Amino acid sequence: MAVITPGAPVPAASVRRGRRRPGERVIEGFLVLAAVVSIATTIGIVVSLLFPTVEFFGEVSIIEFVTGTQWTPLFSIKQYGVLPLLVGTLWVTLIATVIAVPLGIGAAIYLSEYARPGTRKLLKPILEVLAGIPTVVYGFFALTFLNPLLIDLWPSDDKPEFQNLLVAGIAMGIMIVPTVASLAEDAMSAVPQSLREGAYALASTKMQVATRVVVPGALSGIVAAIVLGVSRALGETMIVTIAAGLKTDGIPWSPIDGAATMTSFIAGAAQGDLPVDSLDYLTIFAVGTTLFLFTFALNALSIRLVRKFREVYE
Amino acid sequence: MSDPNRKAPDVTDTVSSTRPAPPPVALVNPANRNEGAPRGDDEQVLRLEDVNIFYGDYQAVRGVDMTIGRHQITALIGPSGCGKSTVLRSLNRMNDLIPGARVAGRVTYHGEDLYAREVDPIEVRRRIGMVFQKPNPFPKSIYDNIAYGPRVTGMRVSNMDELVEKALRRAALWDEVKDKRKQSALALSGGQQQRLCIARTIAVSPEVILMDEPCSALDPIATSKIEDLMFELSRDYTIVIVTHNMQQAARVSHRTAFFTAEVDEQGERHGRLIEYDTTNKIFTNPAQKRTEEYITGRFG
């Protein structure tokens, strides 16, 4: 590089490309690779699901798959109706959502609007640690603690089964509360303080500030928190395998029935000695594709909702 | 707070005063703006007696005594850190929101101690509204911004559309936004947002409007619109404004309080009220040397 005397005009040549900067290239290459790997993995998963699924539907009609009310591929009389698994999944997800949304958002409002700074500093990390408890622990918590309690307290004689969807849904709801609460709290804390002051100056109570200004202002983040919680519930496997059982021979009309979900069926079937390329083996992929479609739809919905509710503060 | 003689200002009343309109603000020599005695009746709305304000152990403001007259614009001026905003926020208990903030001494509103235990700060803020330094419209429609106050305070409003229109007209914003009331308030310009915040404050019919440097984030044209508006509003409302801009204080206010920070024996800085008089007196013939130095730009 040319020596530049202080005060002297900079020579025109100094803006020309002189030295190469190889480090830039290396870093850019690494970043591209990181992006490509994750995209390639996604494509690989879709492809590896797709081919066995197509093969499966070569032998089983889609109509039977979608409308059949029994899922017994591993029994002697084989039936391929996915509805029992679907209904089981929906029950558990619904129950988990019903529990986790009010609790999670309530906790978030408390932490963001009511708790003193010291209390918040203490509680938030605890909440986040809770999110790290392994799901197998929640499964046994549901089976050995929640379910006996539920059966004891059950008001009618029609008691819940030893393994049932309700208790799995409750445990799963408890499991996703910290996720929902923590993310929703982040969104609420990001609402500018000036909006709270404006609301207080208009004679709002604390509750009005929280429900009419902070929650609407943080709606996009709150929706994202809920969707993330719901998709965790949808894909959760361990709790349902342990606490809801693996029954698949009929649609579970009531949540106190024991039944498999899509995920727990896959986990259960994959443990067995299914010969590769048998129809039984292909069922795993057909169910996997169905599950994938659900999570994919949920994510697409969440992206739309988040965009719709996004508020841009200058 | 239930003095039957005191007429609450009415948003639905657009031309409520027979006083002559004030001269155009920008053309008036600041020093001649408020000749003679301040207008409006001399009734005191707010009174501060030996007010000391603390943030935790730190005393931000020391020994302030002043009264604020009805339908006057009172300006609080002074250099940064002199406690003027702190004093302003003590008038509608906004300081309550800051952990550790504490007010000693008496702040009375029509004779009633604002810090007495039985006083409801929500009710205080319904009567004493506030406009902030940075425009802070809610991320809602223009309409919902105005309707927010009446809704949360449970005002019985027979016709919300009408109330919204009156408030927007009163804040000189109607002509600019009448066709986009349902659009987001965040799409407005800074000056329009600030007038929206004023309209929003008016919509709950307060008696007093506190303004904390309401023009400091605005350009000169928007500033001049807000100043015209303040003057117009002072027919019906009592206004207390904090400003860094001395010309602004001179242009709009009837009375001016000059604050500055003093260092005490322990080396701690406290805001103090140095001089409080008619704006005319403060800007033409201040009694205190420090006031004169500040307004002539020699410090601060």
What does this structure look like?
- Chain A: Residues 86-302 form the ABC transmembrane type-1 domain.
- Chain A: It is found in: Cell membrane; Membrane.
- Chain A: Its main location: membrane.
- The complex is a heterodimer of chains A (314) and B (300).
- Chain A is flat and about 90 Å long.
- Chain A has helices at residues 22-59, 62-67, 83-114, 117-130, 135-153, 165-189, 193-201, 206-217, 219-235, 238-243, 262-271, 279-309.
- The mean pLDDT of chain A is 88.
- Chain A is mainly alpha-helical.
- Chain A has a domain at 85-248: MetI-like fold (Orthogonal Bundle).
- With 300 residues, chain B is an alpha/beta fold.
- Chain B has a domain at 41-137 and 208-295: 3-Layer(aba) Sandwich (Rossmann fold), CATH 3.40.50.
- Chain B contains ten helices and ten strands.
- Chain B has helices at 84-90, 121-127, 142-152, 160-170, 174-177, 190-202, 220-233, 246-252, 279-284, 289-295, and strands spanning 44-55, 58-69, 73-77, 101-109, 112-113, 128-131, 208-212, 238-242, 255-263, 269-278.
- A six-stranded mixed beta sheet of chain B has the order 6-7-8-3-9-10, with helices on both faces. A four-stranded antiparallel beta sheet of chain B has the order 2-1-4-5, with helices on one face.
- In chain B, α7 (220-233) links the parallel β7 (208-212) and β8.
- In chain B, α4 (160-170) packs across α6 (190-202).
- The longest helix of chain B has 14 residues, at 220-233.
- Chain A binds chain B through residues 116-117, 192, 194-205, 208, 212-213, 216-217, 311-314, and chain B through 92, 94, 97, 99, 122-123, 125-126, 129-132, 134, 136-140, 148-149, 152-153, 186, 197, 200-201, 204.
